[in-house]
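REQUEST ID: PR-0412
SUBMITTED BY: lab tech R.K.
PRIORITY: routine
TASK: structure prediction, single protein chain
INPUT:
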Amino acid sequence: MKENIKSAVLRVVTESHDAVEPDKVFQEVDAKDREAFTNSVKQLQQDGKLLITKKGKLVSPKASGLTPARIISQSKNFSFARPLDGGEDVYIADANRKKAMLGDIVMLHKLHNSPKGMDGAVERIIVRGSRMVTGTVSRSRACCELVPDSNFRFNINIEKGATLGARNGDKVQAVLSFRPRTNQLSARVIKIYGKASSAKICADAIIDANAIPTEFPADVAAAARRLAARGISPEERNHRLDLRDQLIFTVDGADAKDLDDAISVEKISSGWRLGVHIADVSHYVREGSPIDKEALRRGTSVYFADRVIPMLPKELSNGSCSLNAGEDKLTFSALIELDSRGNIVSYDFRKTIINSKVRGVYSEVNQIFAKTAGAEILNKYKPVLQPLKVGKELADLLERRGVERGTMELESGESRFTLNEQGICVDITARVQGEAEKMIEQFMLTANQAAAMFAGSADIPFVYRVHEAPDPERVCILRELAGALGLKNQKLREGVRSADFADLLQEAAHTPASKMISNQVLRTMAKARYDFRPLGHFGLALNDYCHFTSPIRRYPDTAIHRILSDLVAGAPASKLQKKYTEFAANAASESSICEVRAMKAERDAEKCYMAEYMSQHIGEEYDGIISGVTARGIFVELPNSVEGFVSLEDFPECRFQFDGLTTHTDEISGRKLTIGGALRIQVASADVATGLIDFTPAE
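STATUS: complete
OUTPUT:
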């Protein structure tokens, strides 16, 4: 596959021992587009992968003796920076910080080992992070301070007259700056959200803190309205494979409005014929259009307990692109044949038009599978009862095939939140995956695999979903934990396979250690991301994998639909290489960044909603399971998925010894607090603003 400009520039600069003139690099990488070359150099500089000298030359940080890093936490007298290429976090004394702040990308020098670990100093700031933060106002007679939501480990003084009238306990947004002369950090309030005791208010702040766009620009909204009003032309209908008479249907959550996948399935003499029909978003969202640029900027839809921030305007996400039952819809279909053992025999990707026969709901289909469905549900699904039966049979086979291959069954740990009319969280339950959810998941996995196989066989630029092998040091930690819990750990060493992790998870299943092992396996593995290279998917034990099935809510899916659309239209690989090499690399990079941003925001908001719910139950007692152990105390998880912290100080008559992994043992009584053990707790406190929940032992 052709090397993209960024990779080529980085290779040329890295291979050179001296600083290189940009024009020389431009010639060596054989770049045709000066603007694309300049943008690549700028991006590499922002990523900390190359430097521009005072004379305008390009040089690698390594050749300059510098280490690119990001400031990840900041206290009053010191900070920590994490090297971008991995390695130990670096301690930076305040005198060596050069006004670098949390989130800044910096170049470090003077790295050396010290009693506190790796020590270093900031040589320069490469990319300034946001100086805008959110937090809670804390007022006293002496001062007015901001308690930041982010990894500032200290309160920041709010400048006199710069509060906008914010009261004690208000959630606010503020801009940080250094005071002249004193060099002290101070804050200036620029927005008041409301009371920090409201999870909804905190979610508003979390959205801003993570720079997640919520409003669509006027030109994007207008373009979406025009597309929705245009409808489907007769020419477009005639150019597509017409599947409107087939038994095609959707199955989603009851509250889902962006239905981007439908299925059809039948048993044939040689095995199975599976159709996965995906909303043809790339037909509506053209490359370089205002909608496309905004979708790339957002990268993904973001889901909170009380709202969805969509990647596409609602006219498309809930309208033209959504595969609503009884409506003609444009789709991109993966038509897959599998043999009797569930192996993919062939696949055909076609532009199609469908008309979904039933708007399926997970909970209703689960009742059909469990044979508990009433007459009303059975009547609704009457047209597709046979495909559902066949689909369940195929999904069970595919799941068994995944287990044989070494796919891991990780506990999701997801929660379901119920809010009242005021937006206050009044109930939380652990989200359970039913048979219907598993069926759709297996079909989507199959379509994603087929799409990646199709792209790989054609040797075209692509956006792969990759999941690399775990770091050996993390595997060692998992090995020690598994051994301490009495689980088999002989295979947990360098060169571990996904099947070895799967065996460990299977052994731990239905034991008190199940959740802890699942969480530690997640921490052990590398984070899945997007890449233009087919690096394989460790967790699924697949050589090639991608995301094809959710283009309404994920940009990588839209990107590969665009590429595959040209491929099925007959474009040669050479043309696709030229057209999409840079596009695929950029889409992969930007989508990975947006995914991390969305996941962080969703996780932070969930903590606030959990704290809001538990704040209504202060003093109540619950039975929980010890889910984590630290030097300071233990974490206890309740049946509703809420987790809280119990300090060792709350066991005043005990003198605990920590084994460093799973257990605190009381030297006096011999009592053990160990992962998986039961503990009855009392809810002591719940701070909505921070999402922190504290329990105490109920005894």
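NOTES: The radius of gyration is 27 Å.
REVIEWED BY: pending
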